[in-house]
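User: Sequence recovery, please. Input:
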């Protein structure tokens, strides 16, 4: 089998979930719509300047990358009705 065809077959579709981002004072509220994905399959990673929300769903990867100010941290995270809500506190 041609390795190029095999590589294409193994690639997963990337789905970018609808996400609302709002800033209020010294925090950012991020609401990502992850309907039909169990909470235990959702992963949230925060590095220096990027928040990454990801999950696997069937033959696809659900992923959203959001730029954030350096020094931000997650102060609250909850999942309800298919929506992941994350509150990031901003550096002083």
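Assistant: Recovered sequence (92 residues):
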């Amino acid at each position: 089998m041609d390795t190029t065809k095999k590589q294409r077959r193994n690639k997963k579709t990337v789905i970018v979930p609808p996400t609302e981002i709002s800033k209020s004072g010294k925090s950012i509220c991020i609401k990502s719509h992850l309907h039909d994905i169990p909470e235990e399959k959702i992963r949230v990673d925060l590095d220096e300047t990027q928040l990454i929300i990801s999950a696997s769903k069937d033959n696809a990867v659900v992923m959203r990358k959001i730029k954030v100010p350096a020094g931000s941290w997650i102060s609250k995270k909850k999942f309800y009705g298919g929506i992941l809500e994350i509150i990031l506190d901003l550096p002083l």
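The CA atoms of residues 26 and 32 lie 20 Å apart.
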